[in-house]
Fold these 3 entries.
Entry 1:
Amino acid sequence: MAEKMQTPDYILDIRKGKYSKEGAVSAILRECNITKFPVNVWNIARKLNFRVLEATFRDKNTSGMMIDADEVPEILKDFGCKRAIILNRNEEKNIQSFTIAHELAHFAYDCNESINCFDAYHISRERDGEELTAEERADKEKEDERDRFAAMLLMPEEMFRTYVNSSKNRNNRSQLAKELSEVCLVAEEAVERRFDELGIIF
């Protein structure tokens, strides 16, 4: 009988709800020996037995996809792997970084050992004036939650606050956002949202 690649116990514990979101981030960072920025999500993925690949997608809005299967799927036959994150090679590193973190969130919360898991990450379908169906709205809420976890992983609270407090740009929000986007390898918009989530006031 075909089997999936091994999943570490700490990820299984996250799936069982043994950690808060913050605790899950701390467990991942601890197990991967990450103590400072940037959080190298490429290495985290590799430690979880993912091949991190790049491709050109037909849908230009697709930033990446994640596969965790018990047999080598057709899309990965040339690589001979069961578990992979495939990135849009045309996107910048900060977007790729967030895509990996987002897919790791799906792996930690939405996959299990008994079914094959596939996720495609793309720009939200929500547009000005466009109504979402109930199913689309539920999917978007789930994707937004995975985005929040991705931000937490790339900008862990303690590391983030420590950096903010020690920066020469501490009192200049726009300059600090630019600085942190480079340090954390994320978009400035993601840094701005993290300021708001953590209640950091300037």
Note: Residues 125-129 have pLDDT under 50 and may be disordered.
Entry 2:
Amino acid sequence: PDLEKFIRNRHTAAHTTAPTVARPATSVYTCCIALFATPKISVAYAVTCAMLGVPFRLSGLRSLRIKETDRIAALGAELLKVGILLATEQLEGDEIISWDGVRRPLTAIPSFDTYDDHRMAMALAPVAVFIPGIIIRNAEVVSKSYPEFWNHLRAGGFTIEEADGEGTE
């Protein structure tokens, strides 16, 4: 409920076409959002919901397959490293991702790939709140849109250091 309030308030004020937030009575999803007007924020929404344990269904994501990387495939691969199995579907020309709330056991501290995509790196960084010690490869990719991202996280209390080697999957 608080997440829905945040989503609704944040985006109603920021966009003339706000995401649609709904909770169908028969749905297993706590958070259902149509992001047709703002699909680029879906990666951050998906990671946030998953780490908070909030089942979700995000639609309006058709353009995510043609960005810096196929963000739907990349998100699925990276969330699997923290035990989250995304479901994907196509419906009437739309791309939809969802998670049913079932989490598989974490077997290792994850090393995340960014796929040369700044939004992947920035969306995955807060996973460290839940799983300290994560590694984000090619972290400098954030300089495309937010060069001070890592410095701002440090200022917010995160410990950020250069990783030794490749890490684990």
Note: The longest strand covers residues 94-99.
Entry 3:
Amino acid sequence: MEAGTKSTALAFAKLPAFTCKTAIILGMKECDIYLPVESIKELLNRLLRIEGQVKGLQRMLKERKSCDDILIQISAVKSALNSVAIKLLKDHAEYCVKPGIEYGDIRAFEDFMGALEKLIKGGC
């Protein structure tokens, strides 16, 4: 793990969970919410593992490992990224979209659907 990545993970670990109720109590005009710290930590850890897998792929190519083995590892990376996307979608729906809608922000649902469409289509 690189030093910058580790410090980023530690910085996120200190963030409090933020909800619409907190926004209302603080008198905010918009419901600025985000994922709970536990979700952020888990997503960062998964991405760090994927980063290691990608570095392993680079190493395999440099060492002229079997193309079949490299392709299998590429498949594993794609699967791991899909798992991150699924986790993020679930948590985003639960902790960001749902409270946003409850707060009266219909745009939260529209934005979610737009992001989901881009994820499925595979492009921005």
Note: Residues 5-19 have pLDDT under 50 and may be disordered.
